[in-house]
């Protein structure tokens, strides 16, 4: 399976996906890393692994539609089977998602459906949660609300700040995303009335 990874920043999740894809029998390869920011640190990390990168700097486009159109035409050339959003800090339009329905995954740093959106760690702490975590889900038109493919939980400690909790969650994100990508790439996940049903192969 050919995968395109979208990043906006450091790309630590992209890096773990890239490393996982280097395993010999891995059912996916990263064909390209796309970023909406030329300053994304992940671009250099991808290039260092020999992965092609493309930048679509948002401010170089007059509006969202033009920005997405440029990305969509690049995707028409690359023809990915899967798109992995990994620290991509921009919402995709309904049109974009429809063009790649069911093929877009995202990792969100909360146990969805709790805490969609931003500042998830502070909100978990403020809510008195004793666990937090991350979710890989299929991207649908609503923000952070598509079928959940996989989740990982971590404890919330009384001494936690948003930063310490974020670091603990990021560690398990790096374990979760490669697992979720493998399940989807090998066809072990099927979508059934809005839920992702996983039947791991033997
Ligand atoms: C992190 O906050 C992570 O929780 C979320 O995106 C942010 C950046 O991740 N998925 P990355 O290091 O750019 O992959």
TrEMBL record:
Signal peptide: none
Annotated catalytic residues: 108
Site residues (Raises pKa of active site His), renumbered to this chain: 144
Reaction equation(s) it catalyzes: N(1)-(5-phospho-beta-D-ribosyl)glycinamide + (6R)-10-formyltetrahydrofolate = N(2)-formyl-N(1)-(5-phospho-beta-D-ribosyl)glycinamide + (6S)-5,6,7,8-tetrahydrofolate + H(+)
UniProt similarity note: Belongs to the GART family.
Pathway: Purine metabolism; IMP biosynthesis via de novo pathway; N(2)-formyl-N(1)-(5-phospho-D-ribosyl)glycinamide from N(1)-(5-phospho-D-ribosyl)glycinamide (10-formyl THF route): step 1/1
Domain Formyl transferase N-terminal residues, every copy: 1-181
Binding site for (6R)-10-formyltetrahydrofolate: 64, 89-92, 106
Gene name of the encoded protein: purN
Source species: Pseudorhizobium endolithicum
UniProt enzyme class: transferase
Protein name in UniProt: Phosphoribosylglycinamide formyltransferase
Pfam families to which the protein is assigned, alphabetical: Formyl_trans_N
Keyword terms, alphabetized: Purine biosynthesis, Transferase
Summary of the function given for this chain in its UniProt record: Catalyzes the transfer of a formyl group from 10-formyltetrahydrofolate to 5-phospho-ribosyl-glycinamide (GAR), producing 5-phospho-ribosyl-N-formylglycinamide (FGAR) and tetrahydrofolate.
């Amino acid at each position: 399976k050919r995968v395109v990874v979208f990043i906006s920043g450091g790309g630590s999740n992209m890096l773990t996906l890239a490393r996982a894809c280097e395993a010999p029998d891995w059912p996916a390869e990263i064909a390209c890393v796309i970023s909406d920011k030329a300053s994304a640190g992940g671009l250099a990390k991808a290039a260092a692994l020999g992965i092609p990168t493309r930048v679509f700097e948002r401010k170089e486009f007059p509006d969202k539609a033009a920005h997405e159109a440029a990305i969509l035409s690049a995707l028409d050339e690359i023809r990915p089977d899967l798109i992995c959003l990994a620290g991509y800090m921009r919402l995709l339009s309904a049109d974009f998602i429809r063009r790649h329905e069911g093929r877009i995954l995202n990792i969100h740093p909360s146990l969805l459906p709790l805490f969609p959106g931003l500042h998830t760690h502070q909100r978990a702490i403020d809510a008195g949660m004793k666990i937090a975590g991350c979710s890989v889900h299929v991207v649908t038109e609503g923000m952070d609300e598509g079928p959940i493919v996989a989740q990982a939980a971590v404890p919330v400690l009384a001494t936690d700040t948003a930063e310490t909790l974020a670091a603990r969650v990021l560690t398990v994100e790096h374990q979760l995303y490669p697992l979720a990508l493998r399940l989807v790439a090998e066809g072990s996940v099927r979508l059934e009335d809005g839920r992702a049903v996983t039947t791991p192969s033997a």
